[in-house]
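Homework-ish question, so no full write-ups if that breaks the rules, but can someone show me the predicted structure for this set?
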Amino acid sequence: MLSCRQASQLISQSLDRPLTLRERFALKLHLTICKYCKRFGQQIQTLRLAVTKMVSAVENDNTIEMPSEAKKRIALSVER
Amino acid sequence: MANLHDWLSEHGDYLYRFALARLRDPHLAEDVVQETFLAAIKSPDFAGQSAPRTWLTSILKHKIIDVMRKNVREIAASDLMSDEDANMDEFFDEAGHWADKPLAWNMPEGTLEQKQFLGILQTCMDKLPKKLAQLFMMRDIHETNNEEICKELNISTTNAWVMLYRARMGLRKCLEINWLGA
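A: Not a homework solution, just the prediction itself:
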């Protein structure tokens, strides 16, 4: 039987690689009895979505501008 | 012929935000935007660009990956990665049970778009070691598959899994503490 420590590692890795049949079986078994690891799995999915939202929020935030000194510096550097 | 100064004033802020969102560091963001313009002006494709923003963004993406590659190589060599279970003890007890059991997150529709929630997520990202945060961003933003990222970053896939696991554990816990007020 997997411990929560092992199960949570596999859950995380399942976002990064296909698990083996044996791993999937062991994980499934663990998840039927462990609501905490099940929550962990849902939460890291949510996290992934949240990070995407966070990135587009910054990208589309028109109030964020490049500092004017940096713009001047870039303008100068491309003239050289 | 295209004018680089016009491009700077029209697209500079966008490119800066694009880089800032991913690198999470204003100085690094300025640097990669500068390198992007320098690369653009030297490029033989420069004159014929009809969609400068798209073109500049594609150059910028490569510059961002270059920065991440360098940084991630440094974490791989640092003590953050000294062994596979590195520093995970705070999350589990000796028997491998959760030290703090994950709580139920009740997220009403639209939570992920809320300024307050996104602000807390930003804060939690800032608490991660910066380079770890960058790897995490790279994995979760770019659609590239893992093997490709690892090849790009010159780290083993096993190292990447361990780093991503650490990043997710840290972020999850930080969100739970700061957002749910647990």
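Now go work out the reasoning yourself. Hint: Chain B touches chain A through 58 residues (CB under 8 Å).
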